[in-house]
Design goal:
The relative contact order is 0.12. Helix 1 (3-19) crosses helix 5 (96-128), helix 2 (22-41) runs antiparallel to helix 3 and helix 3 (49-82) packs antiparallel against helix 5. The protein contains 13 helices and no strands. It is an all-alpha fold. It has one domain. It is flat. The protein starts with a helix and ends in a 5-residue tail after the last helix.
Length: 347
Amino acid sequence: MNFLEQLWAIARNTAVECVRQPVSLAVLVAGTLLIVLSVPFSGFTLMDDQRMFVDLALSTVFVCGTLLAAFLATNALSREIDNRTALTVVSKPVARPVFVWGKYLGVAAALTACTAFLALVLMLVEMHGTMPTMATPYHFPVLAFGVSAIVATFACAIWTNYFYGWSFPASVLGFGIPLLGLGYLGALLFDKDWTPLSPAAQFEGGIWTAIGMMWLGLCVLASIAVAVSTRFGQVVTLGITFGAFMAGLMSDWLIARPLRDITGMMERMAKDGTAASAADGAAAKRALLEAAYAAVPNFQVFWLSDAVQQKRDIPFSYVAPSAAYGLALIVAALCVAVAMFERREVG
């Protein structure tokens, strides 16, 4: 087998194993319920309920994706090393970098499928909208297509699991994504009272862009989890992954704000002619903060909920460099993962 065939085989097997994990189904069911429950929860704002729903729903998808990225990446690599099943692969003519990259691509594929499932649920519920008053009408096409898609998904998954022995979590994803996609497309064609509409009238491109950027951030988090799992067990990997996630969300407050403060202080010191020792100390502190800000992934870059809530356009001039930043983080994390895995004892 050549390089691409080996990479494809490892990625495919990893993706299949990931979507078969019970944690995938548990997170999908919990995420779906939380997105639906965000509608009544948003009714307590006394202001713009729809904006609150979008923020709650996007946050739910982000948190669910974070849980999946951590658990799937950990199970894909760390558990195989602990069980020594990785030895059967690397002992064959399969390079360790191919093994690591294949594992990551499989995890990313499974994470993409789970994110797509939750995103379709989010968009259907968002199209229905919140109900600030009792007189607010239901969006009957969304209810008809959405509920039918969910019922058909679980009915097909139960049928195939009982009669053919298919994996139930994998079947829910396999049937759910196309059925929810068809339900979403069908709901786009009708208004609340079944009046035909142009699909563009209800299509929310800004939310889809926010979901796409959020998915890229989850892929970055998965690459970090893969890198950590090459050396540590499940519990430590989960802890470090969630720590990186929280640090990345707060990096602007924890690092960027002190960095701006010390930069301003150094400018004032230069004007006042402060002693060289004090200036050198401030310069060293600024260099340390700059290094920390560059090393910690900034997940705020991938969080566009504020722009969506304020109905702002998300320009391509922002998306393109942000996507390049995310891809650079993924490559950097996987390079670290390969370097750490090269000397890892798997036998």
